[in-house]
Amino acid sequence: ILKLQFLYLIDLSDLPHNLLTMVFSSVFKSFFGTAGSSSMPTPSGSSSTPTPSRRVTREETARDPLGFARSSAEFDAYVCDGAPDGSKQMIDLVFAMDCTASMGSYIESGKRSIASIVQRVTEAKNTDIRFGYCAYRDHPPQDNTFITMCHPFTSDPAVMKKAIATFGASGGGDGPEAVAAAMHESLQYPWRPAAVKIVVLIADAPPHGIGASGDGFPAGCPDGHDPVKIANEMAAKGVVLYVVACEPSLSNYKNAHDVMEGLAQITEGKYLPLTAAELLPDVIVGGAQEELALQKLEALVDAEASRMEKENIAPERIEEELNNMMAEAKMSAAQVEITDIYNGYDSANIDNVKKCSTMAEAMAGMQSLNQPMMKMQRQDVVMSSAPAPAKKMMARRSKKAGLF
Prior knowledge:
Layout: E1 2-6, H1 17-32, E2 89-98, H2 104-122, E3 127-136, E4 148-154, H3 157-164, H4 179-187, E5 196-203, H5 227-237, E6 239-245, H6 256-266, E7 271-272, H7 280-310, H8 315-328, E8 332-338, H9 348-354, H10 359-364, E9 379-387, H11 390-400
Parallel strand pairs: 2-3, 2-5, 5-6, 6-7
Antiparallel strand pairs: 1-9, 3-4, 8-9
Helix pairs in contact: 1-2, 1-7, 2-3, 4-5, 5-6, 5-11, 6-9, 7-8, 7-11
């Protein structure tokens, strides 16, 4: 078990960057055996005047010199140039980051973390990794610069570092931001079918339409994007969502913690209340390892479950048989865990969001609960191995079949 410890920090602006480099280098050697500004100018193609809040069409979107587009629909579809190299594990990773003014105390540390991840991951052995980046702010009139700006997948660390340095913390307005739009654009990226697919959403504010006070769009995303529906679509496509919550900001919004953690859990991802940016590389690497381990079990589980279904065996019995099979074969899966910094929080609303198919359905079932209170304590990231639960594997199988 690899165990790393960090102090609880609220102000991230002065964190020593060399800590991140040392930690991530150690983590990646263990897993892969490797060797080792405030607001910036808006790229061309964005507007300083109010524009209608709607999806920009392909004809209207022009790539800017840095490669950004307002919509990931502009990006070329993935085309396999021959048979994939079976000796390399493919990983597609999209970072979606809130770039509004309230992220000022987090955004530069977040950028440094992403840059370090990009650099270290590209040095990994036996991996074929691509990175995408979706910067987001809010819908007009709350923000008149841009809703989303998307950079296509790239394997070049220099290109990605330049992309994430483009936007500073600026704009926003009402509190909730264009989270749903960012999730939508992230899902539309041209993901490789055989890759481990991960979206890392870095946010200090929730999506519109969850009951937060002062929400300029209380009915939800003005473009009609539904975060709960998108999360279910991610699960069906095998895209895992990690919500990196910039605390204590996010939990100050009504329902924010419950909705955001519910979205992550729909995709079998995690809600990560990070109080120190240095934890981000460890969590991302651990998440990729966890997803890879589960993917390797899916083929076997699917074959056995299909056989038993054809024999009309009851679902409860199938789960029991699969558990016995995996226990006898001593099958296990890597998993990443982060210290819970909340005080025994009631998960009823999280469970409610997780089982829903739309945000309206989720909000109708929300209970009146105070958002969780954080404990001032040290956080740990732990990578361990545990028996693979048949229930979780069957849930993944159902979601990918579209059986929400």
